[in-house]
Design goal:
With 163 residues, the chain is mostly helical. It has seven helices and no strands. Helix 4 runs antiparallel to helix 5, helix 5 packs parallel to helix 7 and helix 6 packs antiparallel against helix 7.
Length: 163
């Protein structure tokens, strides 16, 4: 569900309108603030959904905020996939090429973080289950770092003649 809400979110809508290109700010800041509403929305949805889930399964208190942070970070990674795809394919009208590049970007951006999360989760569940929360923090930091890197590398998306 997060995939579809991120793809159909405000960022894609903002890129289709000319207003974002006219704002007198650095391109990285434009990308950051155009994504901020989607990420905050995902965080709020995560708090609600994971609170309900935590009550139902009796999860620890730390689960709700960390799971919501990871949920918001995943939202930002999906937006980063959109930025990277837009930067690679430019203004092409081929949906097949765009979709293929998008899924390749997804594998490139999502898989390493999920591997890190799974390894940390396994290690901490085997040796010290009270430290499982570190796996959530690890994924959150990974997602923030990769998203920031993609925003800096993909800032040319907002330069009309340089896509």
């Amino acid at each position: 569900i997060l995939y579809f809400t991120s793809i159909m979110g405000k960022f894609t809508y903002e890129l289709s309108k000319p207003y974002i290109y006219l704002v007198p700010a650095p391109n990285v800041m434009k990308l950051f603030f155009s994504n901020l509403a989607s990420v905050l929305k995902a965080f709020a949805e995560g708090i609600v959904a994971f609170s309900i889930f935590a009550v139902l399964i009796g999860a620890s208190w730390w689960y709700v905020p960390l799971a919501a942070l990871v949920f918001a970070a995943m939202s930002q990674l999906y937006i980063s996939m959109t930025i990277l795809t837009q930067r690679i394919v430019g203004d092409t009208k081929s949906r097949i090429i765009t979709s293929l590049i998008y899924f390749l970007c997804g594998g490139f951006l999502l898989v390493p973080g999920l591997v890190v999360f799974a390894v940390l989760m396994y290690v901490f569940s085997q040796f010290n289950p009270s430290l499982i929360f570190i796996s959530y923090l690890g994924y959150f930091l990974y997602a923030c770092g990769v998203s920031t890197l993609v925003m800096f590398l993909g800032q040319g998306v907002l330069q009309t003649g340089d896509v």
